[in-house]
Design goal:
With about 475 residues, the protein is mainly α. About 65% of the residues lie in helices and about 0% in strands.
């Protein structure tokens, strides 16, 4: 068989569309993904739990018949439906089955005899319990204020510290039912690591509770006569719910604080951390002590080396001074010898003086010359002492040069002394002169201080 297909037109450009996922399946997937409690529908609720049998339902006719429909909010709904043990763990499927069982047992039409009014009141209470628990929202509202749940928190006592795991383990497990996240960490044992313990307390300090208190609303919205009144009732109920929610979070925070305070693992970890801190501090102090000791030893070593160097320097200086002293003594000895020799040579030439009257002057000139000549000059003169002509010329040249130098020095000294005297005289004359301003001040001071003034001269001088 052949099928012919006629194609008309062409495909357009591809377009991107925003597709928003929704539905129960997607919601359940997201809850599993983010580890959140899944608020499932009636059919999904309890699908993984075991089927409830009639034997598991406890019929308490005495309690049911003691109830009045007007006080239905104060009744124990789980006890009314025969589920006093399952309570928050029961599913919507269990609620439906228990309700059917109770209807068969307690319907007024089934009662053969007895007080019909009591049976109707009891059946009404059963219906109210079912209406409250048959939906996820209603069941959660009642579970949040379950009268069987103990909101008390253990105190910080020695007994609770010694029996920490038994007491706080049960309390933390019972409060774990309010967690919005699955896989709530257990309290653990004393062998847990510090990381596991910290993870436990981090979870509970950031605890997110699904408890809500709409069941305790005192104002009934349905009784409002107008829209404004309903809004006002909603506002009052919202404020009261927030107040109770805040009290619940305060209670949870206080519970975790008391658990933390009684936890022996925390005390052990703190003691270990304190011990390590002390050890680190002692090690640091020991290292600092060793550092100071090393610095002290280094300082002593440096001082010892400095003393040795100083002693060596002093010794070298002493040896050098001794050598220089010997050298000076040697030079002085040679100088004396050359002076003596030159004196004798000049004396042998009669001091190069032809006139006996000037002999003393010639001797004085020789003494001055000997003081000014170096040892080399005297050696040169003594070396030519045998040659009378050369010796005479050299001696006269040295003598004339020395006399000229002495004369120039004497003139310079006289000139300096004269200049100094002139400067001193000028300063003295300037100091003794009074300016016109000084005279005016002096006249004013004399008039201000009469002759009877004590220390008049000193006072006037200081005023000036």
């Amino acid at each position: 068989m052949t099928v012919s297909v006629e194609v008309k037109g062409s495909l357009g450009e591809p377009a991107s569309l925003n597709v928003y996922p929704y539905g129960p399946a997607f919601f359940k997937y997201q809850c599993m993904r983010y580890d959140m409690v899944n608020e499932v529908t009636e059919e999904d609720s309890g699908s993984d739990s075991e089927d409830l049998s009639d034997a598991d339902i406890e019929l308490d006719l005495k309690y049911i018949k003691s109830l009045e429909s007007k006080d239905w909010k104060d009744q124990d709904h789980y006890r009314v439906l025969g589920l006093p043990n399952l309570r928050v763990e029961s599913s919507v499927k269990d609620i439906k089955k228990a309700y059917k069982f109770m209807v068969l047992k307690c319907h007024p039409d089934k009662a053969s005899q007895g007080n019909t009014k009591v049976d109707e009141e009891a059946f009404t209470c059963i219906q109210k319990a079912y209406e409250q628990l048959c939906t996820v929202e209603g069941k959660r509202a009642y579970d949040s204020i379950d009268p069987e749940f103990d909101d008390d928190t253990p105190n910080i006592t020695e007994h609770n510290k010694q029996n920490f795991y038994d007491i706080f383990g049960k309390v933390m497990d019972s409060n774990a039912q309010w967690s919005m996240q699955k896989n709530v960490p257990k309290l653990g044992t004393e062998s847990d690591s510090i990381d596991k313990v910290n993870d436990f307390y981090n979870f509970w300090y950031d605890f997110k509770s699904w408890r809500e208190y709409s069941y305790l609303d005192e104002e009934e919205r349905e009784k409002a006569e107008c829209k404004e009144e309903r809004r006002y009732i909603d506002k009052l109920n919202k404020q009261e719910r927030l107040r109770r929610k805040k009290e619940e979070m305060t209670r949870m925070h206080e519970l975790v604080n008391r658990c933390y305070a009684c936890d022996p693992r925390i005390r052990a970890f703190n003691e270990e951390r304190k011990r390590r801190k002390i050890e680190a501090k002692l090690a640091k102090q020991e290292a600092y002590k060793k550092e100071l000791e090393a610095a002290k030893l280094q300082k002593e070593e440096n001082e010892r080396i400095a003393k040795e160097q100083e002693a060596q320097r002093v010794q070298e200086a002493k040896e050098k001074a001794e050598v220089e002293k010997k050298e000076r003594q040697k030079q002085n000895k040679l100088l004396k010898q050359e002076r003596k020799k030159l004196r004798e040579n000049v004396k042998s030439h009669n001091y190069f003086n032809t006139n006996e009257d000037n002999i003393v002057k010639s001797m004085e000139n020789l003494d001055l010359l000997l003081l000014s000549l170096t040892i080399d000059d005297m050696k040169n003169l003594n070396s030519v002492s045998e040659d009378t002509e050369n010796f005479t010329v050299l001696y006269q040249n040295q003598l004339n040069s020395n006399l000229a130098a002495q004369e120039n020095k004497t003139k310079e000294n006289l000139m300096k002394a004269k200049q100094s005297q002139e400067v001193h005289k000028e300063q003295t004359s300037n100091a003794d002169k009074f300016t016109t301003q000084d005279i005016a001040l002096l006249v004013k001071a004399v008039k201000s201080f009469p002759t009877s003034t004590t220390n008049r001269t000193s006072t006037i001088s200081s005023e000036r």
